[in-house]
Amino acid sequence: MRAVVIEGAGGPDVLAVRDVPEPVVRPGEVLIDVVAAGLNRADVQQRRGLYPPPEGASSLPGLEVSGRIADAGDSAFAVGDAVVALLAGGGYAEKVAVPAGQVVRAPDGVDLVEAAGLPETAATVWSNLVLQAGLATGEDVLIHGASGGIGVMAVQVSLALGAVPHVTAGSTAKLGIARSLGVRTLINYREQDFVEELRSATGGRGMDVILDVVGAKYLARNVESLAPGGRLVVIGLQGGATAELDLGMLMGKRASVAGTTLRARPVGEKTAIMAAVRDHVWPLVASGAVKPFVGRTYPLAQVAEAHTYFDAGEHTGKILLVMD
After folding, report:
1. Residue 259, pLDDT score
2. Parallel, antiparallel, or unpaired: how do β-strands 82-86 and 64-71 relate?
């Protein structure tokens, strides 16, 4: 089969499409004929040599796919079923083997190519905003990086839950995406201090939940922006991994800070998360409250161009790789 291999650590030029052996399907797994794969920041970090796959996972990049069941094994799926899957690796390929619990049927009414952009974003958002932070109706939530795949999903899920999203992004065009979804507090982090803007938006109370992809650079200001009992969930380290934490402020607010990753979680946890996505997010997709947001698609052969576009930092929505 054709697949993308990483020929050393570096820029997009280290990505190459090669013929590789098809994956071996182990007990408890299914084999998927891939239709499309999502491009995620984790893939970029792996390409750069900064985020190796978990032990036992495929060395090929790609954390989410859509496709059709080619070998159902002993699962409840049937050959030909349209599905999406959350992976630890291996998605940039024509076929992928994945634990059956990490596979769910594609949501009704969604094009199967576009569906490739849903599993990783939906799993990340639901597991962090709901399962981890317990976001509830009426609460204020800050979403950093609101124009990317995770940001758009987080805004839509927050609104569907009856929460009040506030967002940051780096340009007027990117903020316009959040505005089109119904967000009122739009903060250009290049020109505005999000702490002050949030204080004004909430009458000084602050955020009940913050979903952060930046990390160290924003830690102090995120904690400052929390409301009493607030919950900060860090899911990315684009702004570094090490920073000082004002424990006095954190304790005074009775707030909490959690850091999570999705890729390295055991199969049992991923199975539970994907079941929650199927049971709670897919009905929102069916109702139109949550929609996939695809920025661009590229054929697999243009994987280097897709990564170059992602690296430029101007993309919005999901970037997808489509099999021929």
Report:
1. 97
2. antiparallel
Q: Kindly write down the DSSP assignment for every residue of 76-92, as one continuous string.
A: S--TT-EEEEE-SS--S
Q: What is the pLDDT of residues 88-146, one digit of tens each?
A: 999 999 999 999 999 999 999 999 999 999 999 999 999 999 999 999 999 999 999 98
Q: Which fold has domain 122-259?
A: Rossmann fold (3.40.50)
In the predicted model, what is the mean pLDDT of residues 28-52?
97
- CATH 3.40.50.720 residue spans of the chain: 122-259
- 95: three-class secondary structure by DSSP: strand
In CATH terms, the fold of domain 2-118+292-322 is Quinone Oxidoreductase; Chain A, domain 1 (3.90.180)
Q: What values do phi and psi take at 100, rounded to 5?
A: -60, -30
Is a pLDDT exceeding 90 seen at residue 300?
yes
How high is the pLDDT of residue 132?
98
Decide if pLDDT at 324 tops 90: no
The rounded radius of gyration (Å) of the Cα atoms in the chain is: 19
If DSSP states are collapsed to H, E and C, what string results for 156-202?
HHHHHCCCEEEEEECCHHHHHHHHHHCCCEEEECCCCCHHHHHHHHC
Distance CA 297, CA 142 (A): 29
Instruction: Tell me the DSSP string of 238-287.
Output: TT-S-----HHHHHHTT-EEEE--STTS-HHHHHHHHHHIIIIIHHHHHH
User: String of b and e for 134-163 (b: at least 16 CB within 10 Å)?
Assistant: ebeeebbbbbbbbbbbbbbbbbbbbbebeb
